Amino acid sequence: RAREAFGRGLAAGDNLSYSKIDLISANEREISNVITGCQGVVIATGTTAFPTTKWRGGNTPSKIDLEATKKILSAIHRINRELDESDEGRVKKVLLLTSIGTQRRKQFPFVVLNLFKVLDCKGAAEEALIEASENDKFTHVIVRPGRLVGGPWTNFDLAGLFKIENRGGEGVKIEVGDELVGDASRDRVAQVCFAALASPVCSDVDFAVVDDDEGKMDEDEMGAAFGRMVGLEV
Asked: For 23-49, b where at least 16 C-beta lie within 10 A, e where not — what string?
């Protein structure tokens, strides 16, 4: 599925490689072999908030949202500890995709979403990332999207059941912290994550993102928004 998704519109021979790994059974050495040479890492793993068939084989929030994230961070530590801070082979930025409500999990409706501790696990993963970024000298970004809508509809909720798309347009709203509410189209979230990873000013920050059809941003506007989040005058 990754080859199909990323192959659209790309010329054959582009610098793309694919590796499949089981984050439940893999150790940090196996994971570090996959990400060695990457300066940026996006952690976008996850499972369903409530028990479904996707939990088979231990694919639960605690195993995926928390323990797998910690394994990836341990693999990054394994890579970076061997290299000095100027080495191009170091992991320099890590972006973690979690969810709105992670910092509001005692409030309604997020308390319902957290019945099986998915937001607890995501919150603990955020804390682990921040600690690892300080210890291993890389920058971090935490992105909290709203309810994911649009294909491939992997979540077992109303958005997946009724194949809910975004309402049109391409705009997004991004805001530091965890105060936004609303849906977030997968394609727009992906664009924001890529822009945040590539941005030299978007570092050591956490923010929420939801759809906003009136808020379309070009590359410069998104860069300015990232700058404002970290206190730069733009």
From this structure: beebebeebbebbeebebbbbebbbbb
- pLDDT category of residue 18 using cuts at 50, 70 and 90: confident
Predicted TM-score of the model (pTM): 0.90
Structure tokens at 162: 């009724």
Instruction: Locate 101 and state its tokens.
Output: 């409500």
Torsions phi, psi for 20 (to 5 deg): -105, 130
What is the three-state SS of 26-53? CCHHHHHHHHCCCCEEEECCCCCCCCCH
Long-range contacts of 29-32 (CB under 8 A, 24+ apart): 29/75, 29/78, 31/71, 31/72, 31/74, 31/75, 32/75, 32/76, 32/78, 32/79
Supply the pLDDT for residue 156. 53
Q: What is the distance of C-alpha 1 from the center of its chain? A: 18
Q: What is the pLDDT of residue 86?
A: 84
Per-residue pLDDT tens over the stretch 178-215:
999 999 999 899 999 999 999 999 999 999 999 998 88
Element (H, E) at 81: none
Residues in CB range of 220: below 8 A, 6 or more apart:
none
The Cα–Cα gap between 105 and 184 comes to 19
Q: Is the pLDDT of residue 80 over 90?
A: yes
| pLDDT digit string, tens, across residues 103-116 | 999 999 999 999 99
CB 209, CB 172: distance < 8 Å = yes
Alpha carbon 199 to chain centroid, angstroms: 15
